[in-house]
Each structure stands twice: as C-alpha cells, then as structure tokens.
C-alpha cells in the first residue's frame, strides 16, 4: 500500500509537468509585450479574459447528493487545490522552456519535478489511495491528457508502461481519461467542483 502511494504520487507529479508548448507571434501594445496571431495580414493581440461559467441549477448538488457523497466531496475539496497549483506551475514552466534547446529543456523539467517533490512530498504522501485517484482525475481535468500520456511525454513509453502495469495491480488505469459527459463518477466529481466554485459546498 505504501509503495502504491509513492507510485501514485510520482505519477501525479509527472502529470503536473506535462507540456503542451505553443508558439505565437508577440506584439507590443501600450509598451507591454502581448501574444497575438497574424490574421489576413493584421496582427491581432490575445487578451486573457477572466473565465466565466454559465450553469444550470441541475449542475449543482442537491442536499441528498451532498449527504450521500460526503467522502468523495472531502477528497475533491482536499485535492482540488493541488491540481490548481499544478496547472499554475505547468503554465509557468511552459513559458520558461518554450525557447530552450532540447537538453536545457529536459534539465528544466527535471528541476521543476524536483522542486515539486520538495514542496509537496510530505503532504501528498499522507493522502489516501482514493484521494490519489481523485488527484489523477483532477490533473487530467486541468491538462486535458491522461496520466499515462503525461508520463509517456516526460519519461518515455517504458516508464509509462511500468507505472500502468503497477497501477493495474491496484485496480487503477492511468489511460482512463476524465469524462464527465460519459462517466457517472466523473460527472459527480465535476458537479462537486461546480458546487465548490459557486460556494455551495
């Protein structure tokens, strides 16, 4: 059980560090450097607007669902901040390594992984197996890629295959994506997150 916790922790850390690097034109507006795109010969700057959510009341948990799913709610509330921090660190890492040569990029990723372990090792090692499963789901939710794909990108197919084989012994599947539209538990997790973000939990 302790070994499984360590493996889930390592997979979660590597998932935090998965990269989807993009390149965009840079434009100067009001003496600030902004990212933009060239469309029909014109440079159009990108502006990051605050995300808003339009929800139906059906998306929020009912009082009966809250009473029935207390354990999952606790796990999501505990692990959601880690997934959010992971997403922030991913965005920072993307900016840092975007223009680095391959070797320097690998070194930067290893350093980021080491820093992540140093910052969160004790807290995440104390998590339960069910909390680790929720964290993997939330990382997939934030990054849009399964834990298997992220480990493959960072450590290669051999390491990803090893973690997948080991995880399957404990009933986990690192290739399973987060699918709130088709998976009943994922839908419940999504509704828990919506309820948390709208102050209902």
Topology of helices and strands:
Layout: H1 2-16, E1 25-29, E2 32-39, E3 42-45, H2 63-68, H3 70-97, H4 102-125, H5 129-143, H6 147-155, H7 157-168, H8 184-197
Helix pairs in contact: 1-4, 1-5, 1-6, 3-5, 3-8, 6-7
Structure description:
With 201 residues, the protein is mostly helical. The protein has one domain (2-22, 59-197). Helices cover 61% and strands 8% of the residues. It is built from 8 helices and 3 strands. The chain has helices at residues 2-16, 63-68, 70-97, 102-125, 129-143, 147-155, 157-168, 184-197; strands spanning 25-29, 32-39, 42-45. Strands 1-2-3 form a 3-stranded antiparallel β-sheet, with no helix packed on it. Helix 6 packs antiparallel against helix 7. The protein is globular, with a radius of gyration of 19 Å. Mean pLDDT is 77; it is low at 18-31.
